[in-house]
Structures
1.
Amino acid sequence: MDNINVDQESWILLKQGDQKALSRIYHRYYASLHQYGYKLTGDTALVEDCLQEMFLYMYEKRQTLGDVTYIRAYLFRSFRRRLLKKLRNQRRSVYVSMDDSWMVMPNELEALDHDENQRKMLAALINGLSPRQRELIYLRYYNDLSPREIAEMLSISYRAVINTLYKAMVKLRAHRDKLEDIE
Amino acid sequence: MAKRKSIKVEDLIEDHTFLQWVKGENNPQAQEWEYRYHNFPSDRKVMDQAKILVEGIPFNRRFISDQKVERAWEDVTNALDAASKEQATKTFLKSDWKIAAAILFIVMAGTGLYAIFQNSEKVYQTAFGERLEVTLPDGSQVTMNTNSTLRYVRNNPRRVVMTGEIYFDIEKKPETGEPFIVQTPDLDIQVLGTEFNVNSRLKKTEVLLDEGSIELDIKEKERIRMAPGDFVSYSSLENRILEQQKAKKPEVITSWKDGVLLLDSVSVASALLLLEETYNIETHIENSEVAEKMLIGGVPNDNLETCVAALRTIYNLDIHIKNDTLMVR
C-alpha cells in the first residue's frame, strides 16, 4: 500500500537475489538521488559514477545487507557518504566545504502569480541560509523525505530536523516580511 | 471533541486532517482545527509551527529524464550481467537519426542556399544585465552572459570569435569530423561536440569543460587537452597559465546561466567588484569593517533592485543605489 511497505518487500526480494527488486528500487529513487547529488557536488560525472557503484554494490553484497526501515533514507545516507569520500580523495583534503552546495536557482521555484522577481528574491533568501538548513530544505521539500527519514539519513534526532527546518522557515518569513515593509 | 489531548508538532505534520486545515479546506475535521486554533492559545502556537513546516517551499521539481535513468540502468544491468553482448546492436540503432541528419545536411548544402550569405558577418551582442540564448546554424546552443559578443562569418559558423562570457553546447559533426573553434583574445579552443563555459573578461580567458573534450591552442605557446571537469585560466598579457586544475564546483562557475550571481565566500568589497562587472555601475563603500564582512549565497545577476534588496535583507547591509552608484555604509 504505502511506499515504505512496497520498499520493504523489494528489499527482502533483493536480498534473495531478485534483480527485478533492484530495478524497482533503482527506478523509484534514481532521479531523486541524482538531483540531490548534483546539488551537493555540482559534478554530474561524479554523481553518476557513485550511483552506479552504489547499486552494483547493493546487488553484489545483497546477502550481507541488514534490515532497513526506511530504504530511501538508507540510499540517501550511503550515497551521501560515497560522494563525500570521493570528493575528499579528489581534493586530497579531509575537509569538504559545502558552503556553495544546495544553492537554489530561481527557475527551481514555482512562480506565484508569474512574478519573476519574487522567485529571484526567494532564491536569494534561501541561499542566504546556512548549508545545513539548505540541505534540509532540499531533502524535505524537493526530494520529499519525511523528517523521520532525514533524521535517519543524517544520524541526527527527529527534533533536530524539525527545529532546523522550523528555524529556516521562520527566518525566510522574517526576511520576506521585512522586504514587504520596504516596498 | 469530548476531551482535548495536548498536541505535538510531530503529530500534526503527519495528520491529514491538519493538512486539510492548512490548505484551507472546509470540512468538519478542518473546522475542528479552526475552532481549536481560535479558542486555545496554547494549541495555537504549536499549530502555527506545524503550519509553517507543512507549507514548505514552492519548489518546481524537475528531475533528470526517464531516458537518462534508463540509460544509466542499462549500464548497471550490463555490468551485472557482462556476458550478454546484445546491447551493442541497440547502441548502433540509436545512431540511425544521425545518419538521416547527415543525408539531409548534404542535400541542403547542395542546394546552395548558404551562398546568399556567404561572406557577411553575423554578430550577437548582449547589453549589461542581459542574457541571450542563441542557436547557431549548425544546431549548437550558446548562452551569452551580460556584456558579451559573439561573431562569425556566415559561410563558416563553426569558427566564432567572442568576448565576455559564453556557455557553449556544441553539436557534434561525426559525419565530417569538422571541429568547432572558439577564438578569444588569449587563445583558440578546438571542439568536438561538448559543453563548456568561456569567460574572457578581465584580461584573461577562463575555460571550464562540462562534457566531452576540447583542446586549447594558446597562441604561439602550447596546446592543452582538457577532460570533463577541468578548469584552465590563461592570460596572454602575462603570457602564462594562471590556473589549471579540476573545477571544484563547476555549477558555481555556470550559475550565471540561471540568473544567479553566486557569492562564494567573498568579502563585501569583492562582491561589490562583481556587481560593478555585472551591472556596469560604480560602487562606494564607507566603512572598512563592513568591507571585510564575508558573504556566502546567491543573488540575482539580471535585476539590480532585487539584488540590492536581497543583500540588504540577508546580510543586514546598509546598501542603496544613488545616481547609478551603489553606496554601502
Note: Residues 83-93 of chain B have pLDDT under 50 and may be disordered.
2.
Amino acid sequence: MTDAGTRTIKVDALARVEGEGALYLRVKDGEVKDIQFRIVEPPRFFEALLRGRMFGEAPDITARICGICPIAYMLGASQAMENALNIEVSGGLADLRRLIYCGEWIESHVLHAAMLHAPDFLGLDDALMIARDNPDLVKTALQLKKLGNDILEVVGGRAVHPVNLKVGGFYSLPDRAALGALAPRLEWGMTAARELALAFADFDYPALDQDYHCVSLGGAGEYPILKGRIVSNRGLDIDIADFETTFGEEHVARSNALQGYLKDDGSPYLVGPIARYNNNADLLSDAARDLAGACRLGPTVTNPYKSILVRMVEVFYACEEALNLIRGYAPPAAAAEPATPAAGVGYGCTEAPRGICFHTYALDDGGRIERASIVPPTSQNQKQIEADLLAVVSANLSMDDEALKWRCEQTIRNYDPCISCATHFLKLDIDRE
Amino acid sequence: MTRPLVIGVGNRLRRDDGAGPAVLDVLHRLAGQGTQPFETIELAGDCARLIDLWDGRAVVSVVDATRSGRPAGAITRFDALDRPLPRDTFLHTSHVFGVTEAVETARLVDRLPGRLTVWGIEGRDFGQGEGLTPQVTRAAARVGEAILIARATTGGDRTDGG
C-alpha cells in the first residue's frame, strides 16, 4: 500500500516455513530503521518436560521436537547421555548412527531444496506449480526423499519418530538384507542428486554476499555429521562442552524463541549447510567436491541463496556415504552398549540438516535428569536471518512491495527455518515512511 | 485384497489438530476386538509421506483438521479424484507438505490411489496439550461412523451422501 510517502507491505503468512512467525520492517527516508524477525509460535517447554525423567527417555522425548529431523534430537540426546555416563559408542554402532543420519539429511534436504525452495528461483508460487511445470523433477525428488525415509525405517524402525534408537546404540540391529537392498537405490540416488544439483546450478541467483561467521562441527577427519569439535572460519576451535561458555541465547520481547549469539561480542553466527561446507569442503568425497565444482561453488560460499546447491551436494554426499557405510557394515556384537544410571553432566552436538544442535543434561545419582538444555539450529540462526534481511532490504528498496516481499520470503527460506524446533509462518509487515 | 487404508493426520498434542488421529480411535473402538476392517496409519508431521503411504492402494481415506473459518466441528468431504482440494482449508504448516500439497502433487505426478476421500474436521483450538474441543470430538465420531458405514455398504469409502 502506498499513501503519502508511507508504504506498508503486509504478508499474512510466509508459506513453506515451519511454525508461526512474523517479520516487521520499518523503512524511513530510504533507510531500514528496524527489522524484527518474530517467532510467535508458543514456547513448548521441552527442557522443563525432561526434568525428572530418566536419562533413557530423553531420545524419544526430544524426537518429538521435530517430525523432519528427529534423528538430530535423538542422537544429540543419546550422545550427551553417553558422555555423562562414560559410554563409548563406536564401530558398527557408530556406523549405523551415521547411516541413519544420512537418511535424515537426504529426506530433509530434498524436500526443502526441490519442493519448497526451488519454486522461488523459478518464479513459481508454490510446490504445486513446480510439479505442474516439471513433473519429472518432482518425481525424482519424491523418490529421493523416500530413499531417505526408507533408511530411517530400516535402521530406526519407522520413518517418522523412529523407535529403534536408544542411549548406547539401538534396540535391535537392522536386517542385513534390508540394508543391502538400499545399496542399488543409493547408487541411483547419487545420480539423481547430481542431476538435480546441476539443474539448480542454472538458476538465476540474486546477488548477495555476506561475511558469515560460519560455525559447525569439524576436526574429526570426516565431513561432520555426528562428531568433532565446534569450529569456525574465524579460528574458533572448542570442545562441545564449551558451547555454553562461548555461545549465548537471549530472549527478545518480540520472539518466543531464544536467539543465539557469540558471547564475546554479541554478534550473530551462521550454522547449517553453508557453514558446514565452508568449514569442511575438503572433507567431502572427491565426487562430491567435483559436483560442487560443476555447480560453480567455490571452496567458500558467501551467497546465502546458494544454500540450495550446498544442500544438494550434501544429498549427493549422504547417498554416497550411506552406500559406503552399507558396503562396509560389520554387525556389532551387541545392538547397544550397556548404560548404567549414574550422576553426571554430559554434552552432545550433531549436525542437524539445518546446522549444529547442542544438548546438555545433568543427571542425579539415579540417572534422572536434573537439568536439560537444547539449542536448535534455527535459534542460532535467527540473528543471522535478520542480518541477511537487513542487507537484502537495504539493497532492494527500489523494488515494488510485492517483489520485495517475495525476495524477503526467499531469503528466509534460505535457512529452511524450523520455527517449531526453535520454540517455534510468517507474517511480514513493512512500514515505509 | 488389501484392506482400505485410513490415514489420520495430525498431532494429538496440539488439541484439535488431533482430529485425524481421534477418528482412528473411533474406528478402532467401533471395530472392537475382531479383525479390523481397515488398516490405519497415524501421521504427524510431513504429509509428503502420504504419497508413499497410499502408493498402490485401491481405497484410501485421509482425515485431517481444517482451519477454514467454518464453525468448530464442521465436516467437509472431498473426492480427491473428482476435483482439486481447496488451497486454504487444510492446515499447511511448513517446510513440510500439508494434505492439499500432497494430494495435488500426487495428482500432477500421477500417484493418486485408486479412490481417495479426504475428510476435514474444522478445529478451533490448535494450542498445546491433549484433548479436543467438544464439537470436534463429536465430529470425529461422526466421521468414523461414516467411514465404517461406507465400508460396510460399499466396500470402501464413498463420496455420496453425508
Note: Residues 91-121 of chain A form the longest helix (31 residues).
